[in-house]
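Lecture notes, continued. The same structure-token format from the folding unit now serves as the input rather than the output. Read the line below as a description of shape only.
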């Protein structure tokens, strides 16, 4: 395996690491938003403040779905480059050119892993809000 191909694979792995950090970042922010809005919901303000956490959670869920899609495409690119001959590598990191790129963010939004996390967060907010009142 040539040094250029190894460097190309390392760049793809670095991009995958960045995507993983972004996904973890979105989940941490989601938990933080939920905690802050639940804390605000304990105050008597006349309406259910805790449920306002649902809006940023849905936004972070979309961000997480986009990141998961990007990770999927980068993994696909890595596997394709890994098995190519050194002469056939074009050193492109354009994942949108892959045939798998037709898979939409919505499909990742509704996939079981992130959906389970974010739906559990939303149900947890509702459960805690009901227990507090």
């Amino acid at each position: 395996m040539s040094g250029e191909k190894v460097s190309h694979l390392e760049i793809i792995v670095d991009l995958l690491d960045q995507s993983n950090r972004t996904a973890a970042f979105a989940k941490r922010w989601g938990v933080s938003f939920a905690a802050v809005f639940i804390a605000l919901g304990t105050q008597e303000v006349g309406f259910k403040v805790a449920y306002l956490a649902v809006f940023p959670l849905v936004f972070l869920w979309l961000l997480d779905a986009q990141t998961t899609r990007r990770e999927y495409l980068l993994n696909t690119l890595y596997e394709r480059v890994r098995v190519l001959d050194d002469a056939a590598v074009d050193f492109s990191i354009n994942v949108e050119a892959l045939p798998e790129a037709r898979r939409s963010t919505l499909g990742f939004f509704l996939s079981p892993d992130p959906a389970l996390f974010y739906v559990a967060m939303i149900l947890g907010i509702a459960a805690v809000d009901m227990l507090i009142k």
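Point for the exam: The chain has a mean pLDDT of 86.
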